[in-house]
Batch of 2 targets.
Target 1
Amino acid sequence: MAIYHGAVREDRHAPVEVCLPVTGAIQSTIEIAVKELPAATVAYTTTSLRQSIYPGVLAAYDAISERITTSGHTVADDPREIYLNFNASIFSPMASLDDPCVEIEWPYRS
């Protein structure tokens, strides 16, 4: 999963945090921060491999943002990209550009 800390736009880069699920006791180091994400209500969409290719994926971010605001909600945190079947779909020679690839989640509050 990746969390984008800043605008997700074609004309500007944003700092990104790469997250991995872990089990057991893990200690933070200089290179790795250990933290637990709080529970959140999210608006989301799933994109195909074709739709997830930058800059086309920006349309999904725009759609989620619009849905949050037109529903009378406010963005509560930074958007997240959850990579689905990462090893099986993206790097497989059997992968189709229409396979589900990335779920984009954007936490919001009412």
Target 2
Amino acid sequence: MAKTPFLTDVQTLRQRARQHITEGSVTAGYAADREVVLKLLNDALATELVCVLRYRRHHFMGRGIHSQSVAEEFLEHSNDEQAHADEIAERIVQLGGEPDFAPEGLVSRSHAEYVEGDSLTSMIKEDLVAERVAIDSYREMIQYFGERDPTSRRMMEGILAKEEEHADDLAELLVAFPDETRGNGDGGARSR
């Protein structure tokens, strides 16, 4: 029984590398539907950007006796989400696409919602809901990418791990903040 070589012969690889050279890292071996991948990644980018904005608002609007530590958590999560957005945008460009940062339609492209909240507890809950949405949608993206686009899959796996960490952080914060109503001095939002 003849053994088939594991790798394509070097001459063939070199010849293919010279074809369509302007496509950068997207070679003939790229197995995913690039248009679908770019749409998924732009949706993830929108999700991350909406999360950045929501967390930033919560960072500045949280108020009450425990607000400083929670606001710091919101800011840390916002910075993480911005780093995710940057990673995703870079991957979109690597795949020959254009990252969609247009504010118009950002919320409609995002899987997570932008909900302001009116107390620390409601802000934490809204952020936790958004993290849970991101976790489920990113898991589905990872499954789609599979072996067709292992680079995008690994990137999203890293982002998913951080989103799961955020969800755990927020769930722990909820334990510290029982349901509260606006204006009781311990968890309201700042009024303008």
